[in-house]
Each structure stands twice: as structure tokens, then as C-alpha cells.
Design goal:
With 263 residues, the protein is an alpha/beta fold. Helices cover 47% and strands 13% of the residues. Strands 3-2-1-4-5-6-7 form a seven-stranded parallel beta sheet, sandwiched between helices.
Length: 263
């Protein structure tokens, strides 16, 4: 379905981003990975599931720096022609009460979780709008969060950034509503990524309970389904947005959260 297209997924060397990259590669899209840590492992995971002929590139841009984001977009254009599908997924977290929240942590979360999506989007749009003989074709998928729709204590920067991502999604969709470029947001609940596993482990240690009990407690606080959303499920939603069925899905914040925000 996506043969000949190129998808750039930020924060895609693990977790949600890697799950989305794999799903898009299965559909034939070339992939530009971004993130820290191991690169060869994620490349191998994509190669194992990708459609024939899919190519995988990598750029290690620090998503808190606009100049490095520009370098990454230029690399993608030079390597693959243009970015057809942009998945803004990169994100970090810090937990503290507002009066105790370190200023540098606030600045970093806003930069990586929100401003990076703006910078990548503004750089991707011109080529997307010029595609298909000027009719335009492009898919911008912003990975927000259930915290882009509701709040939780001690997550002021993360909640502010993710609400901002949902707002950016709506404006991007409206500005391009008469073109072939769509923009939508995915709002996951708890996803068992390495980051969330650390929270489970910390809860188990702090309370002297088993990992299984800590998992049930974590889910029970927010997620009525009592089950994690998976990166694979989120990847399939991204594929839907890129499909012909998603042509007129514009500006939505689609929560996949086990009922979290339905409460």
C-alpha cells in the first residue's frame, strides 16, 4: 500500500516509534529512524518484517535542537526524495509538583515533546503539498497521549506539551484541509515501553510488592480495560491514517487507551 513512500519516525529506536516504523515498513514504506542508543537492532527488526525492497536510513538528530531537526529533514530528502509520512513521536518525561519542577526539565520536555513536532512539520509540509502534481499527498501523525486530553498530577510539562501537540494537530489539519495532506494525533494510554516498565519496577520496589501487583495497580489507576495498549496496535492505527480510508480523517485526537478518557 505504501510502496515508494518514505516515512520518518522520530524517537523510533524503541517503543512506540519502533512499533509504528515496523508497521509502515510492512506496507512498503522506506523508513528513516531517529533516536538514541542501539541502531542496528531496530534496523534488523524492521528488515525482518518489511516488504521487499524497503530501505532503512537513520539520523541521530537531537530533537531538542531545531538545527539538528533541519539536518535530519535534509538527510531524508537527499536519501529518499522527500518525507511522505512524518510521525512525530519523540518524547521524554519528568514527574514533580509544579513548585518543585526543575526549569531545565520543563524546557527540555516542551522542546522535545512539542517544539520538535512543529519544526519537523514546517519542514515537511512544502514537499508534501507539492506532491502528486501539486494536488498534495502527505500524512502527519503526531503521537500525543491520553495526557493530551486529560491531566494527571505532577506531570505539568508533559500534559502541557501533549495538549499542545493536539492543538498543533488541529491547526495543521485545518491549514491543509483542501489538500491531500492530512494531520492527526494518536493518544495512547499506558503502553508497555521500556519507559513505562521502569515506572512499574519503581512502584514495585517502593511498595515492596511484586511486579505483577505493581502492573495491576498502575493500570487500575487509569485504564479500565486493565491491559496495556501495544506498539503493534498503535502501528496499525498509523497505517489506517495512511490508507485511502483515512483520506478525510483530519484533525482528530484518536485515543487508544482502554477507556481512560471515557471515565
Amino acid at each position: 500500500m505504501l510502496k515508494g513512500k518514505t516515512a520518518l519516525v522520530t524517537g523510533s529506536t524503541s517503543g512506540i516509534g519502533l512499533g509504528i516504523a515496523k508497521a509502515l515498513a510492512k506496507q512498503g514504506a522506506n523508513i528513516v529512524l531517529n533516536g538514541f542508543g542501539d541502531v542496528e537492532g531496530p534496523k534488523a527488526e524492521i528488515a525482518a518484517v518489511a516488504a521487499p525492497g524497503v530501505k532503512v536510513g537513520y539520523h541521530g538528530a537531537d530533537m531538542s535542537k531545531a538545527s539538528e531537526i533541519a539536518d535530519m529533514m535534509a538527510y531524508a530528502a537527499a536519501t529518499f526524495g522527500r518525507v511522505d509520512i512524518l510521525v512525530n513521536n519523540a518524547g521524554i518525561q519528568h514527574v514533580a509538583k509544579i513548585e518543585d519542577f526543575p526549569i531545565e526539565k520543563w524546557d527540555a520536555i516542551i522542546a522535545i515533546n512539542l517544539s520538535s513536532a512543529f519544526h519537523a512539520t514546517r519542514l515537511a509540509l512544502p514537499a508534501m503539498k507539492a506532491a502528486d502534481g501539486g494536488k498534495g499527498w502527505g500524512r502527519i501523525i503526531n503521537v500525543a497521549s491520553a495526557h493530551g486530553l486529560v491531566g494527571s498530577p505532577e506531570k505539568s510539562a508533559y500534559v502541557a506539551a501533549k495538549h499542545g501537540v493536539v492543538g498543533l494537530t488541529k491547526v495543521t489539519a485545518l491549514e491543509n484541509a483542501t489538500t491531500g495532506v492530512t494531520c492527526n494525533a494518536i493518544c495512547p494510554g499506558w503502553v508497555l515501553t521500556p519507559l513505562v516498565q521502569k515506572q512499574v519496577d519503581a512502584k514495585a520496589t517502593a511498595q515492596g510488592i511484586t511486579n505483577e501487583a505493581a502492573t495491576r495497580q498502575l493500570l487500575g489507576e487509569k485504564e479500565p480495560s486493565m491491559q496495556f495498549t501495544t506498539p503493534e496496535e498503535l502501528g496499525e492505527l498509523a497505517v489506517f491514517f495512511c490508507s485511502p480510508a483515512g483520506n478525510n480523517v483530519r484533525g482528530v485526537a484518536w485515543n487508544m487507551d482502554g477507556g481512560w478518557v471515557a471515565q
